[in-house]
Amino acid sequence: MFSKYPEFIDTDPRTGRSSTRSYNINQEFLERRYTAFFENINLEGKTILDLGSCVSSLGAWVLDKGAKHYHGVEYDETLCNLAKANLSKYFKDWTISQEYFEDFFLNNTEEFDIIIASGVIYGYDDPSLFIDEITKLSDTIILESRHPVGRWLMESEFETEVYLPKTYIEMMEKLPLVVYYPKNAFMLYSDTKTSAKFNGSCPTKGFVDYYFDIKGYSNQQEFQQSCEEKCPEVYNNTKRYACLYIKQHEPKSFGFKTSIENNDFTEQEFIK
């Protein structure tokens, strides 16, 4: 599809990026990726929020497939300008907001049919707060991120070498954990041009699954399997994951105060 819209590939700074830590952007990969994301989702007439929109290649995809409106949010001015130039050449029904997610959530009054949050949850100090915000805005959420445990072991500085078997690391990724990168957290746009270094957090897929369940959302296993089949070099047990969460049940109480207020707790007498 991007042969019709080459600007969305040519202007993306991630086209020259190494695939060791993340993934390299090219036409073939994006078309496999977005096919996996949206092959079973009807985009006709839908409103789409893209958090971490870069140059808005996802905007081109969803608008080409009939989306009613696309809204991209990106903090970097250069990327926002490129996205605006790219979209204005082909489409009308779009908005690009240059701001941090915290500010967007504070000022936003809209709800969306679908939210896509790709490679951004580790920009939050507390990923549960990020999930709290996006679940207020949509019942259908695609979240893409990296598996953090193996990378943390690889990049952290220890006095002695630390080795854990691959199967053990994969098991840890299923646990509801949040990993912090105190020295090496960054958003990598290009190996040679630009990256944004910061102190951030990165939740395991186990944490994301657990917390979405608390909010009333179910992980759609078919979506995850499709991403792994179409993009196995990126979506696998050790590198990254992509999941579709749909609101399908009532939220559960979380924390002592909320559980008591909702009568979702069991009280036992103290034994002396």
Notes on the protein architecture:
This protein is 34% helix and 19% strand. With 272 residues, it is α/β, with parallel strands linked by helices. Helix 2 runs antiparallel to helix 10. The strands form three sheets. Strands 3-2-1-4-5-11-10 form a seven-stranded mixed sheet, with helices on both faces. The chain has one domain: Vaccinia Virus protein VP39 (Rossmann fold, 3-Layer(aba) Sandwich). The protein is globular, with a radius of gyration of 19 Å. The mean pLDDT is 89. Strand 7 and strand 8 form a beta hairpin. The N and C termini lie far apart (71 Å).
Figure out the total of helices: 11
Stretches with pLDDT under 50, minimum 5 residues = none
CATH superfamily: Vaccinia Virus protein VP39
Name given to the CATH architecture: 3-Layer(aba) Sandwich
Distance between the termini: 71 Å
Dominant shape: globular
Strand content: 15-25%
Rg (C-alpha, Å): 19 Å
Structure keywords:
272 residues; alpha/beta; Rossmann fold; seven-stranded mixed sheet; two-stranded antiparallel ribbon; 11 helices; 11 strands
Question: What's the arrangement of secondary structure elements?
Answer:
Layout: H1 7-10, H2 27-38, E1 47-51, H3 57-64, E2 69-74, H4 77-88, E3 94-98, H5 101-107, E4 114-118, H6 127-135, E5 140-146, H7 149-155, H8 166-173, E6 178-181, E7 186-188, E8 195-197, E9 200-203, H9 205-214, E10 217-219, H10 221-230, E11 240-247, H11 256-261
Helix pairs in contact: 2-10
